Structures are given as structure tokens and as C-alpha cells.
Amino acid sequence: KTLSLHIDMDQIKKCEEKDYPTLVDIWERSVRASHTFLSEKDITEFREAMIPVYFPNVDLYCIADRDTIAGFIGLSGNMIEMLFIDDSLRGKGYGSRLLKHAISLGANSVDVNEQNPLALEFYKAKGFHIISRDEHDMEGKAFPILHLSL
Fold first, then answer.
1. What is 73-122 written as a DSSP string?
2. Exposure string (b/e) for 56-88, b if CB count within 10 Å is 16 or more?
3. Using CA atoms, how far apart are residues 146 and 101, in angstroms rounded to an integer?
4. What is the dihedral of CA 126, 90, 38, 81, to 10 degrees?
5. N or C, which terminus of the chain has less Cβ within 10 Å?
6. Max CA separation in the chain (angstroms)
């Protein structure tokens, strides 16, 4: 079934390259609200890497609130690499629906910043549990990472 340009509310679709600038904006609003441990320099460095480095290496799916992208999830194999909901639309179930979609595609693992307790509680409430911890993130920065699995 081909999706029209208009996305119905709650419809999940595969993201396209033309969506990337919108996804980066959603990412930044979400990160600024939930990742208070990041410095302005960290946010800038991550933002600059989103389109050229992170997005091409994951399968991205987005969910809409009417005809506006509300959030997105990025998958690599069975790993959830990213899940971000626009800060103004949090608490409406979009993250839960994206997670359910990811699990239906075989996702069963996710890494969470230890300093992001809301994300940790979200995944734990969905059945994930901590299996290990690293002191540093993949870039070697001192942001402890919790590895979770279903």
C-alpha cells in the first residue's frame, strides 16, 4: 500500500531523506527537554552528525500528529538506536506506538543514557530490563550508558 503525502494521525511510515531536517529539529527539542546533562557544545556536535552520520545508518520510522511529524524511531537490526518525540507532543502515546512498531519488526534492545531517568523508566515500563552498563558512550564521552533488553 502506498502512503499518500498526508499522514493520518498516528500513522507510522518509513522516513524519507526530505524528512531529515524536520527530524533534526524534533531531536533537538526533545534532547533539550530530556538530556539536561548535555552541554551546548555536545548538542551542537550531535546535531551536526545527525544527517550525515546517524540517520543513514538506521531504518527511520516516524509517526504523525495530524500532518506533522510528532516523533521518530531509528532501528539497526534488533537494536533501537534512537527514539525521540517532539517535546510539545510528549505524553500522548506516540513513543509507545513507535516502540510497539519497532518490537513488531524484531527490536529487543536499546541503550539509554543513565542521566536520562525518564527514558529509563519508559523502557522499563514496557518490559525492558538493564543487562549491563558502560561508563562512556560510543563516542568515548563520560555519559554512562545502560544497555537494556526485553
1. EEEETTEEEEEEE-GGGTTSSHHHHHHHHHHHTT--EEEEETT-HHHHHH
2. eebebbbbbbeeebbbbbbbeeebbbbbbbbee
3. 22
4. 50
5. N
6. 45
pTM of the model: 0.88
Handedness of CA 1, 22, 11, 80 (dihedral sign): positive
User: Residue 122, Cβ neighbours under 10 Å: how many?
Assistant: 17
The stretches in the chain having pLDDT less than 50 are 1-9
Q: What is the pLDDT of residues 101-145, one digit of tens each?
A: 999 999 999 999 999 888 999 999 999 999 999 999 887 888 899
